[in-house]
Amino acid sequence: MLYRVVPRPLLPNAVISEADMPHHEGLNPHYLLFTPDGTRILHGSSYIYGVIRIWDLSLRELLKIPTEHVSQVGDWARLLSDRTVVSGTSKKSYDFWDVISRTPIRFCTASRGSEGLDFTHLAFAPNDSIAQRWETILRDANGWQGDPRVHNETHNRVACISEESIFVDEKSSNTRVASLNVDLKPQEDFMLSPSGKSISFRLPSSNDSFLWNIDTQAVYRLDGSLCNQTSYGREWSPDGHYIAVERYSDFTIWDSRTGALVSILDFGGHFNLGGRLCFSPDGRYFAAADEGRIRLWDMKIALQPGPYRPNCPLSFRDGVVDISH
Q1: How many domains does the chain have?
Q2: Hey, which residues does 45 pair with through a beta bridge?
Q3: 273-302: string of b/e by CB count within 10 Å (b at 16+)?
Q4: What is the CATH number of the domain that holds 208?
Q5: Which of 155, 176, 218, 251 lies deepest, with the highest CB count within 10 Å?
Q6: Range of the domain at 302
Q7: What are 100-149's pLDDT values in tens digits?
Q8: Measured distance CA(158)–CA(170) in Å, rounded
Q9: Are 196 and 296 part of one and the same domain?
């Protein structure tokens, strides 16, 4: 079997496990995500050569796939079975790795052709059963195509920016659900929650991030989490009830229904810009990784002390949210 989950004593601050990256190999993380069953974590990083890693929930490294080139790390990876990993690249191509042996084999690539996907075999199967397994995976394109980091949306909404407003429309009927005037054109990195009920956004020349609860029409100022960063990490929980916001050395967790600060997760040192963060599919765990470390928290324990601070919604003046206070 490829993996075995090993229980470990709980560390302070709801941290249940952590691991240091080998020197240089943790640089420039491309992605960090849980497998669909929530029992393992996939992490892709690059430094001269690319590396794909699979960890269990104790952050014991189960498998390391050294790639020939940084681009082969891809933008994401998915564990198709205990024996196969697929990684997707920014050029919409796919690499397949057989991980049954100690040295993973890149047995095939798939790229977009004029009539669909073109497959190129790079390795010969050692026996008929493995060859049959490979062919079954390649035929089931719907089973591995698509970025697994994309939230499983439970709504039919789309958000957009026009001038000084954020609009939310129903995709099927193209009808307007709600609009929010903020008196300044919001940054383009706004994020609609998986439930379609909240939007995280920020404004130019501001260290604050904001949360708009679409259903209640309430807008909350979170805090000066950005620390003058040009970009910052945020991640919604799968149900959209919480959002994690990156700060200098920790992550603040906010309740999207009330705007309250409900937990602070300490990374145990400076979290380098360009790191990655993610929730498990059931929302039970939260993970973060930068160029030097990966850390895992139990959200059930992390949320017990909260809320740290309730939050009052911002007021409106003539239909425009007042962000001056």
Answers
A1: 2
A2: 51
A3: eebbbbbbbebbbbbbbbbbbbbbbbbeeb
A4: 2.130.10.10
A5: 251
A6: 157-321
A7: 877 788 999 998 888 888 999 999 888 898 888 888 888 888 788 888 87
A8: 6
A9: yes
